[in-house]
Specification:
Structural class: alpha/beta
Strand order of the largest sheet: 3-4-2-1-5-6-7-8
Oligomer: single chain
Strand content: 15-25%
Distance between the termini: 35 Å
Helix content: 25-40%
Largest sheet: 8 strands, mixed
Order of helices and strands: EHEEEHEHEHHEHEEHEHEHEHEEHHH
Number of helices: 13
Radius of gyration: 22 Å
Shape: globular
């Protein structure tokens, strides 16, 4: 679905500055790609400038190009040659000034600075935006670190950094409430978690020649409840569950890896747990649609964020078991879109897994509903008109 609004008759030149790899990258890449694609399809010129290299971009070959209507360019090298403090400082400064030169050569209407960056990054890009009379807009999908929030000095410095932006794109209501202390309501744009509605296009479910499995996608930040997923899976097996467990993520970097390994070692049939490790984002969809059930068991989201994986889970057309964490209940309906349990309730989680294994009618019902909801609620196309209005308002204010 392509949304074309009245505002798009007057196309904007939108540039997003980021450290995240592009076009293939991490969850940050997926986040901003989803709404830039919608804006591009609405007639706006969208560009991504990667102002600093990252080790996560090691598999990217082209320093510039076009991806699904979005032009991109690396301001310095794609990835690090030598990863040390000297190189980090050098690449950072070189990348910032190179990015500013790129913006000067092809003037834009809006600059989005993605993520929580160093103060020097915000200040230098702010100096450019002020001189060019172009609004600088931030994008936040998480709260600042606990260290910042619990320190008066760090909180004060953080508040100063917010003054470098004219507005902010916010992903959750808890973030919206937090950033209201820095910005007026009209300078904040609430954009829920969005995913690429075409992410699973062209993929077909492949019958598993070895075994059917429950898939768990997790991050190294240890907030996805991987240990809880493993414990719940063990209870599921003890109750007669026959599916294996596939773990997708950077397992070797998990901060609680020792506890995870201890839990797996105590399992009577540990060979049923397969650790796939970290996978390229473009490979994950196939693992998801091949699964029989998808599982995510976080206890809470202290960062104020929202699990991008849940949007992908719902879009895959595979039944889901999840725990009630964060703002999930604001978006999904238990028993209609997925089966939901209380965090840490291993009995309920394992029973839900068994229920989906044995009740194919329920599994199909949940999958259809979840996919339908994801294509509307978590699709950036649904919000593009409001985003255009937000940009227009910020642009007008910056030019006065």
């Amino acid at each position: 679905m392509v949304c074309v609004s009245f505002i798009s008759l007057f196309p904007m030149n939108i540039v997003l500055l980021t450290q995240a790899p592009f076009p293939i990258g991490n969850v940050s890449t997926m986040r901003f790609t989803s709404y830039l694609r919608s804006l591009s399809e609405s007639g706006h010129k969208c560009r991504v400038v990667v102002y600093c290299p990252t080790r996560m971009a090691k598999d990217i070959k082209d320093p510039s190009g076009v991806y699904e209507g979005i032009t991109y360019q690396y301001a310095t090298d794609i990835t690090w040659r030598k990863y040390n403090l000297y190189n980090k400082i050098l690449y950072l400064l070189k990348g910032i000034f190179s990015s500013i030169n790129i913006l000067k050569k092809d003037p834009c209407d809006v600059v989005i600075l993605y993520g929580d960056n160093l103060m020097v990054v915000n200040v230098l890009f702010r100096l450019f935006s002020k001189r060019a009379k172009v609004p600088l807009i931030g994008d936040r999908s998480e709260l600042p670190s606990v260290k910042i929030r619990n320190s008066k000095l760090r909180s004060f410095v953080y508040s100063l950094k917010q003054r470098t932006c004219d507005g902010m794109i916010i992903m959750t209501r808890s973030l919206l409430n937090y950033y209201k202390q820095f910005y007026k309501n009209e300078s904040l744009f609430f954009l829920p978690m969005t995913v690429d509605p075409n992410r699973f296009n062209g993929l077909n479910r492949q019958e598993q020649v070895d075994t059917e499995y429950i898939a768990v996608v997790f991050g190294t930040h240890n907030r996805d409840g991987l240990l809880e997923s493993i414990v719940s899976y063990k209870r599921y097996c003890e109750k007669g569950g026959r599916y294996s467990l596939l773990l997708i993520g950077d397992y070797c970097s998990m901060p609680n890896r020792a506890a995870l390994e201890e839990e797996i070692e105590r399992f009577y049939d540990k060979d049923r747990i397969r650790i796939l490790g970290r996978q390229p984002n473009d490979k994950v969809p196939q693992y998801l649609i091949n699964a029989s059930i998808l599982l995510t068991t976080p206890n809470m989201y202290i960062s104020g964020g929202f699990p991008t994986k849940l949007g992908e889970y719902m879009l895959s057309g595979v039944p889901i078991v999840a725990t009630e964490a964060g703002e999930l209940l604001d978006y999904v309906t238990p028993g209609e879109d997925l089966l939901m349990c209380k965090p840490g309730d291993f009995e309920a989680i394992s029973d839900s897994l068994l229920k989906l294994e044995n009740d194919k009618v329920l599994s199909g019902y949940l999958s259809v509903n979840a996919k339908k909801k994801a294509r509307s609620l978590f699709c950036a196309d649904s919000y593009v008109n409001d985003m255009e209005s937000f940009f227009k308002r910020i642009i007008k204010k910056a030019q006065n």
